From TrEMBL:
GO terms for molecular function: DNA binding; zinc ion binding. Pfam families: DDE_Tnp_4, HTH_Tnp_4, THAP. The keyword Membrane does not apply. Keywords: DNA-binding, Metal-binding, Zinc, Zinc-finger. Residues 15-88 form the THAP-type domain. This is THAP-type domain-containing protein. Residues 344-493 form the DDE Tnp4 domain. Residues 264-314 form the Transposase Helix-turn-helix domain. Its cofactor is a divalent metal cation.
């Protein structure tokens, strides 16, 4: 078998770095050769091995750094890199990937050391310890005499590559090592170095610690947000929740009857917290401070309520009968598109970039140049959301989502669907005897005809652009993303009509 076939199968017998000739065969030959210094085989002599092989780690981020550093188009199944390419001789916390002799010009920058948080306190403790000891022998014993290495200046001989890492510390210090609190305090002009006040007692610290780490349902002083005090008018309710005051308290009574959670907050405050998260996209730290609870409890409350709210409100997102759609169709549709049943569009919401490479590629949208979640929304001509699909990756096409979301099963013969140019779904709708109204294409045409131009303008005038979530969704919230879409769609349907007739504006 030649070397090329061996490389493709990935035996892991050689270093994967370009122009590096180190392999396991050379290593075995070196072990079987004689050592000139010790006059015995290298396999038995105490000489250091010339190099070792290190397997590429399975961690995704570190793996990407290895692949970037090796810089090869193809890699074997098992990637090994010899120790000659690591700054520390092996992968370490400071330098976890290869940086030396990579076969191309690259700037070698050693990793930064990890800074200790309590370095200043440790230095002060060491200084106070040396000042209090007052013994020269103790200070000398912390120097080179404490190491198990002997140096003979006369013969100029050194031990053979052996070193003891067990440092001998001073045996006993005569003075007590118990220190007062004042020994660790540094007084200066900064407020963070001042002593604790009378209000900051040990019980207060313990209460805050329990509330933050254990998620104890005890209120922290300072939280002033409440539904009864902050939701007074419709403008307040629309600002915080996106629905009117009447709708908000109706939802509170509905959820109070079927409450399955034992949170200490009132149901109205819990619903207010969830809707403020959806409407204003507040972080859980902010919500916890507003309602006087911990961050972990606010996060737990939101994640617990989303499936329950979706189950309660899913009846608000339903496909309307054809007679109802015809009766509520706006005047702008009656003139040119009176048979329009639904307007569809695929909306995309930005999400945080996943660390998993497969998920990252499936969610990347070339149209948005970002990782997105993509979903299909179907809206009646008067603005009522009738259909919301589950979320797909941003890489999915509009046609794929229409086919896999189950949208076509709601259509009846004689219906008309209005969509954008990207929905090339004629072959899906033709067997159902459903007409598709989309803007005209300029493909293979120098320009649009007068008829196509008029049709495109009419469709653009009556089409509705859909955008449900405008903020970036964290990866931790993607498990509840379908429930979030359903709840947001239901809350939109609880708002007033999206499209109003001219006589309604005259009455206002």
């Amino acid at each position: 078998m030649d070397s090329a076939e061996s490389y493709k199968k990935g035996g892991g017998n050689s270093c994967a770095v370009n122009s590096c000739t180190n392999n396991r065969r050379k290593l075995q030959m070196w072990k079987k050769s004689m050592c000139e210094l010790h006059n015995e085989l290298h396999n038995d002599c105490p000489c250091l091995i010339p190099y070792k092989f290190h397997l590429m780690p399975s961690d995704e981020l570190t793996k990407l750094e290895w692949i970037k550093a090796i810089n090869r188009k193809t890699l074997p199944k098992h990637v090994y890199v010899c120790s000659e390419h690591f700054l520390d001789g092996a992968p370490s916390k400071r330098n976890p990937f290869p940086k030396l002799k990579l076969g191309y010009d690259s700037k070698v920058t050693p990793g930064r050391r990890k800074l200790a948080r309590c370095e200043t306190a440790v230095k002060k403790l060491k200084l106070s310890y040396e000042n209090d000891s007052g013994d020269d022998n103790v200070s000398d014993s912390t120097g080179f005499e404490a190491l198990d290495i002997s140096v003979n200046n006369d013969n100029e001989t050194y031990p053979e590559a052996t070193c003891s890492f067990n440092v001998a510390y001073p045996e006993t210090v005569t003075k007590s090592t118990q220190y007062d609190e004042t020994d660790f305090l540094i007084y200066d002009d900064h407020p963070y170095s001042e002593k604790w006040s009378d209000m900051q007692t040990t019980s207060t610290q313990t209460k805050l610690l329990l509330t933050e780490e254990k998620g104890v349902q005890s209120k922290i002083e300072g939280g002033t947000m409440s539904a009864n005090t902050n939701i007074v008018t419709d403008s307040d309710a629309l600002l915080y929740t996106g629905v009117t005051k009447e709708v908000f308290f109706t939802l509170v009574e509905l959820l109070r009857e079927d409450n399955q959670f034992n949170f200490q907050l009132d149901i109205a405050d819990q619903l207010l917290l969830v809707l403020m998260r959806l409407k204003l996209h507040l972080i859980f730290d902010d919500l916890g401070r507003r309602f006087g609870i911990s961050k972990s409890l606010a996060c737990k409350l939101f994640n617990s309520w989303m499936p329950a709210l979706a189950e309660q409100l899913k009846g608000l997102v339903v496909w309307l009968p054809r007679e109802t759609i015809r009766a509520c169709i706006p005047e702008s549709f009656r003139e040119n598109y009176p048979r329009t049943t639904v307007i569809i569009d695929c909306a995309e919401t930005f999400i945080q970039r996943p660390t998993n490479l497969k998920s990252r590629s499936e969610t990347y949208s070339n149209y948005k140049s970002h990782n997105t979640a993509k979903y299909l929304v179907g809206i009646a001509p008067h603005g009522h959301i009738m259909f919301i699909s589950r979320a797909f990756g941003g890489r999915a096409s509009d046609k794929f989502i229409v086919e896999k979301s189950g949208f076509c099963q709601y259509l009846l013969p004689g219906d008309e669907v209005m969509a954008d140019r990207g929905f090339t779904i004629d072959n899906l709708l033709f067997p159902l005897r459903v007409k598709l109204n989309i803007p005209a294409f300029t493909k293979c045409k120098p320009q649009l005809s007068n008829e196509d131009l008029t049709t495109t303008r009419r469709i653009a005038r009556v089409r509705i652009h859909v955008k449900i979530l405008s903020s970036t969704v964290p990866v931790s919230s993607l498990k509840n993303f379908d429930d979030i879409l359903l709840v947001c769609s239901a809350l939109v349907n609880l708002r007033s009509d999206l499209i109003r007739e001219p006589d309604e504006f005259a009455e206002i």
